[in-house]
Amino acid sequence: MVDWSDPLLLSLRVSLLATALTGIVGVGGAWVIARTSLPGRRVLEVVATLPIVLPPTVLGYYLLVALGRTSPIGRVWESVFGQPLVFTWQGAVVAASIASLPYCLRTARAAISEVDVRYEQAARTMGLPEWRIALQVTLPLARRGILAGLALAFARALGDFGATLMVAGNIPGRTRTMPIAIYDAVQAGNDARALYLSVVLSLVAVSVLAAVTLLERRPA
Amino acid sequence: MRPELRARALVAVLTAALGGAALIGAFTVAGTESAPSATSDEEILVAAASDLQFAFGELGRAFTEATGVDVRFTFGSSGQLAQQIVNGAPYDLFASANVRYVDDVIAFGRGDAATKQTYAYGRIVIWSPKVRYRSLAALRDPRIRYIAIANPEHAPYGLAAQQALRRARVYSAVRRKLVYGENIADTLRLVTSGNADVGIVALSLAVVAAGRYTEIPPRRYAPLEQALVVTSTGPRGTLAQRFARFVMSDAGRRVMRRYGFLFPGERLGT
After folding, report:
1. CB contacts, 8 Å: B88 with chain A
2. Is B31 at the interface with chain A, CB within 8 A?
3. Enclosing domain of residue B90
């Protein structure tokens, strides 16, 4: 019997949470970069883009150093929650979030930059505070791009392998996400399972992207 | 502002708030309950060397049948598994292909030294799907393009393969043909998939794979003393000890013997 529900549910859970985390940080960051004059915002964008360029091993290594049991973050986490962040599914969420952040941030940044500033100026003359302009004018006008960014981020999170394997390991029922379950099956020479899991993952990915495409095509 | 816009903004804010709340909730709950799926105490996580893939798979099923305790395995190279355990991976038992890695885990305070036991001795074979190579010297055959061994850096069976090639004085002749598997199961896969012509793999895997093999004389490599250690405490640690006792029991050894493992005191000196 091929047991795929465990890795699939885990993958969906990890990627949904990662997308939420990435969405908040990525859209927020995109707005800051596109609409403020915060010093160092270009550097921020470059740093946030690094996960696209860096090999997953480098990303995984950095995360292990930053979140490992001997790191400050790792220690605080362990003292609060009583277990390490590495080798847990929460660690997998962090890895997937970092890996998918640039896809969300860059797409959202482009969409926000394209919003005509005159709408924002109009809102400003009506006395709307900046945070309400952002939430009620800018972001709604950029929603297609933001949605596309979130979809990309979700797809990337769903497919994350290298960084997740290094940070969260390959623990059945806990951190063995779909990509890692496929790797595990291939390594063990279990070709039938590898094929089955790959097809399931492909179908999920295609359905998600198809849904988003339909959503985007709907008239504004 | 148009009411429609206001409604949309409301939706956006609500979505963000819900997302944030879900996130915080998930992460908070997460601290206390570690597994995403139903995980009772009646389950143990075992990190086991890849050569145990079939033997321990069978032992795990037998143990579950006898006790109702689920055994979930992660197979990998002993060195990589030890590395993960030292870094906090939540396994309950570590079954290594080399006692050295068990000692490492104990030295880092992650294993209970009192539970360390040698459960078997491993053997290596020259394996190929069709051709039967009768000796290491036969691997010089120019028709062989790739020879798969496990990565000697962290896989004990790879180290044994390297030692055997060196002691048989064929290492320098075949060095350029060597390709490395991540662990011994991966090494076998390199050959079964047809990407390598022949491999030096664990006898415990070769007995299951459809191919031909020749055992490499044990004098060619340092003994593959396979040891285990309990790596968790509390009720899960107790369950892990039960599984360890099961591996060492007569019933457990009968299974292990079928996969070609030897036991302490019966090493062949050939």
Report:
1. 68-69, 84, 86-87
2. yes
3. 43-121+225-258
B99 and B216 in a single domain? The answer is no
Does some domain include residue B94? yes
- Whether residues B185 and A9 touch (CB distance < 8 A) is answered with no
Which residue segments constitute the domains of chain A, with CATH numbers given? 5-217 (1.10.3720.10)
Per-residue pLDDT of chain A (220 residues; tens, 9 = 90+): 455 568 999 999 999 999 999 999 999 999 999 999 999 999 999 999 999 999 999 999 999 999 988 899 999 999 999 888 999 999 999 999 999 999 999 999 999 999 999 999 999 999 999 999 999 999 999 998 999 899 999 999 999 999 999 999 999 888 999 999 999 999 888 999 999 999 999 998 898 888 778 777 765 5
Among candidates A89, A87, A86, which has minimal Cα distance to A65? A86
> Is A172 buried (19+), middle (13-18) or exposed (0-12) by CB count in 10 A?
buried
Sole residue written with tokens 């000796």? B135
- For helices A56-67 and A72-81, angle between their N-to-C axes, nearest 10 degrees: 60
Does any domain span residue B34?
A: no
Residue in chain B closest to A138 (alpha carbons) equals B9
Which residue in chain B has the smallest CA separation from A190? B189
